[in-house]
Amino acid sequence: MWRIYQYRMKAHFRDWDNLFWGMLFPIILSTFFTMAFSNISSGDYFKTFPVALVIESESMYSDNFEDTLSSVQIGDSELFDVRVFDSVEKADGAMHDEAVDVVFIYGDSLEMRVKNDGMNQTVAKHFADQYVQSEAMYTHLFETNPEAIPTLSSFEFDASNYISDMNQQRGDVDPMLGYYYALIAMACLFGSFAGLKETSFIEANQSSTGARIQVSPVQKSRMYIGGLLSATTLQVFSVSLLLTYMTFVLKVDLGERFPALALATVVGASAGVALGAFVALVSKKNLKVKNAMLTAISMALSFFAGLMAHEIKYLIHEKAPIFSYVNPANLIADAYYALYYYPDYHRYWLNIAILVGLIIVMYSTVIIMARRRSYESI
Amino acid sequence: MRVFKAMLKVTGKHIVELTVYFFVFMVMMVYMTSILGSVEDDQLSSFTPNKPNVYIVNDDKGDPVSDGLEEYLSENVQIVDIKLEKDAIADALFYQKIEYVLRIPTGFGDALLNDSREVLLEKTASPNMTSAINADMLVDRYLRTVRLYADVELKETSDQSVREALVNQTRINLEKSTPLSFSEREKKTESSDDRMCFGYGYLSYAIMSILILAVTSVTSVFIQSEVRSRMRCSPIKTGNLQLQLFLGNLCLAVLFWLLLNAVIALVFQDFNLDSLRLLLLLNSFVFSLVSLSLGFLIGNLTASRNAHNAIANVMGLGLSFISGVFVPQELLGATVLRIASFTPTYWYIGAIEESFRITSETGYAIGKLIACLAIQLCFALSFLALSLVVSMQRRRRTLASDNFELNEA
Question: How many domains does one find in chain A?
């Protein structure tokens, strides 16, 4: 068996076309992903953003506004990067060139101008509303209840004292990661082609090599184990290569739990190879059709795991939870997701357990179908 | 036309395979356009939402302060109303279906007014997200205003009606807002147009993947060395032979083009052929030609089925991602778009946008659309030329090796 394994490995490494493309294409795709998402993820996270300030009539109030504007802080960084302009036209011009996102105009009262709507604009609007509201409240209280002024000036309030943050997840929210997980899942499932190749290499009705092997005095189980093991080894290697590339070149954060990542990779790759062997034995069509079936199956499963649109994975999980638990691509993607996002290993183990279950089911079918199969005439 | 006929026969033998390809991409296309197309607005705006999606659990119902907070938030954020378990909340946060979860525990209203910090609001949100900061600001503003009014105006706040008055006053104050004006309002297309745009964009992914897979599976039969040797000793010129092969593939392309467009028409339930529809049909036909010649080139390059699969994926998926099929072009960086402009998919998407503008804006020049189509045709021609070069090269190489074998013998 060991020898069969060795020879099959050698054969894989000599099949240069398959080897090259099988390893290269997920790497190229992940590079495309990074290119496509380079602008998006950063947009959801808070960054100091530039605003323009135009003061139409200078007063104590306008000074106060300018001071407040430049001193608002979120965490350790300032919320606004304030640039003062002397006319609304100039500020509008700057906004047109996207040098600033928002223009504040302080005349008799505070006004705001924007070019389009967006998150930064919304944050700025909230800030301006809050400012206007406090201003109105102070004016109102000054007029109606002057003895409250000492309370007012000593009023200090920190809302964060009343809020406890319950977020326990490990990683930051980044839905774009979903695409990478689905890609890893697809790369694993592409191991099915190797599984198919190994099986058709052994079965006599699939290839002439198979016909020769059938009459050899080697036990069929040994051929199978050796062949499929070599396919799995190759697939694990190829997925690891992808993961290494993602982590070190594309800087995709996969969660840094290396032993668990390695296990997920091995299980995922095995599931891919098992799928190939399973389809090869269940279907009686020729090799080309089986190839097409595997392409279709692995693409469709990865599609439902969120390869083309990350929402689909969530949608399926909501609307058809059972399907999401038997879809190997989704299980693989979800295992990586759980490693990145969840603090405990519960969900990860659930995914791995179901995957192992699926692998056992697929290989049991393979054993039942392949054992004692012999050919009277081909 | 012998080769052409043989080609059709070979295609007939691959019918199951081709059906499988067609079926899977069709299912994905239908699913994408119908499910995602209908939530397209939401999906697009999820990159720049004005209102964060907030999920509120109010366990302190009946207390005016807590109810006021819930009402105030529901006017200023997008309330998500679904029942969620603990894991589901975490998932929904990750996929940004929810951006902020706020639980108001029993007794919070009392605790806020009495300044005791025993009962706290429980928020679950991913740190540093702009949308969460936004929701934080709203909560902060409400709590601050309630406390300020309570401190300044009232000393005794246990009475229900006093609390209601307090919350009312707070709400009146919080309704004040800054006047807002737009310096230049960008024109927005209607959402049905957006859906159509998305549907036709996605069509490019299906066309490219199917055609590469289908054309390569048929073409690769003809580059097997025995078949090739037999064809070489027939009295047909290579150019003629390649032309006939290409024509056969063209039939295949036209067939898939018709079928996929029929599917799109069925999905949108839209069967009238207006000028916009005709332009989109023309554009997708030109793109089919590009995919066809690309498939032809790849089929000539390698006979390995795995390689075909891999290339079809890289081309179909990869180009779709960087050219604005799955991710709208406005969200892609300038560098990425510049790189994408060296690919046909970019010009296909460009042509879709131009078609919309030509049919919706009066007096819009047609020049850009023609340029987009012409560039796609150039891609098709260059792929075709390249595949001819490759097949010539291969011929020379096999000739040389055959001669070598003859000499050896």
Answer: 2
Domain of residue A10: give its range. 2-39+177-370
Per-residue model confidence as pLDDT tens digits over B159-215: 777 777 777 777 777 777 777 777 765 544 455 666 777 788 888 998 999 999 888
Minimal Cβ distance to B318: which of A32, A123, A186: A32
Contact in structure between A91 and A100 (CB atoms under 8 Å): yes
Residue B83 has pLDDT above 80, yes or no: no
> ipTM of this complex > 0.90?
no
Contacts of B116 (CB under 8 A, 6+ apart): B110
Q: What is the pTM of this model?
A: 0.81
The residue whose two tokens read 């000393």 is: B155
Q: Give the three-class secondary structure for B202.
A: helix
Tell me the CA distances in angstroms from B62 to B70, B111, B155, one per residue in order. 11, 14, 21
Do B35 and A307 count as a contact with CB atoms less than 8 A apart? no
In a domain, A97, yes or no: yes
Question: Which CATH code is given to the segment(s) B49-174?
Answer: 3.40.1710
| A:B CB pairs within 8 Å | 301
Identify all chain B residues contacting A151, using CB atoms and an 8 Å cutoff. 151-152
Cβ neighbours of B39 (radius 10 Å): 12
Residues A136 and A79 in one domain: yes
What tokens does A205 get? 């009705």
pLDDT at A41 over 70: no
Find residue B46's DSSP bridge partners: none
